[in-house]
What does this fold into?
Amino acid sequence: MSYTKIVSERVRYASGHYMTWNNTNRLINPDDSYYSPYVTGLKTGSLTDNYCIYVSAEINGCQYLIGIFGSPTKNSRYDDAHILLDALLGKE
It folds into this structure.
């Protein structure tokens, strides 16, 4: 779980080779317009033109797991996640 909330990290392999890992979950990046302070991480995914995201969030001391499947665009999965986060926050 700790890696699912890291925006970017430079890692060193046993071979001495370095690589930078960049998280594609825009909900965890404070510099992104889709950022949410309630999101604690998880996983994005896609198949051709079908996008999904699992979102872990903590709101008022409660842990939530949100799954968005079949979004038509990369960004629509974040829009859908915000709709559900707003509902959990009582901002419907």
Observations:
- The beta strands are 8-12, 18-22, 39-47, 50-59, 62-71.
- The two ends are 29 Å apart (CA to CA).
